[in-house]
Amino acid sequence: MDWMTEIPPASGAIVGPDGLARPRWAAVDPMLRDYYDTEWGIPVRFEHALFERISLEAFQSGLSWAIILRKRPGFRAAFADFDPDRVAAFDEDDVERLLSDAAIVRNRLKIRATITNAQATVALREQGGLVDFVWGFQPNETPQPRTQADVPTSSEASVSLAKALKKVGFVFVGPTTMFALMEAIGMIDTHLLDSHRRGSSGVWG
């Protein structure tokens, strides 16, 4: 078999040498392929892990996800493994430390946003916690994309989630960023219909 073979154009998926169909973005780079196969779209229902996903999605804004994924170990080391309590206590000295850390994306606004969001995550425990708050916006239906062009970049649910998070103190949580989060944590299933991962979250049939 060739390194990869496109299956019928209507599907938009690509069959790799392992015989499995994936979207084009996950079909070439081994790192992205592994992320797609093992993590993307799998439900995240723990505060610590969900805070990490929100943080990384914010850093990804305006950049490629591959950049963020390659720097993920650096992000984890720099942000105390995304422990909300520890990050919430970061001060200006920590901001300056992070701005000199080449292992992460050095953006002052995004660094401060991560600290702000950690503080909001801690405060949200009084309202049931981040996980229940975010998952409370799970829609009743999920997209049914045959091609990547069929996958929307925002939705009514992501707009509502973004607005709600902003009301409780979160920043860098726009509708597009929240839609990407919803995809990543399995709240919606935007795997292409012909992808071998379609339905793998267990949330959607």
From TrEMBL:
It comes from the Bacteria. InterPro entries: Adenine_glyco (IPR005019), DNA-3mA_glycosylase (IPR052891), DNA_glycosylase (IPR011257). It holds the Pfam family Adenine_glyco. Gene3D superfamilies: Hypothetical protein, domain 2. This is DNA-3-methyladenine glycosylase I. The lineage of its organism: Bacteria, Bacillati, Actinomycetota, Actinomycetes, Micrococcales.
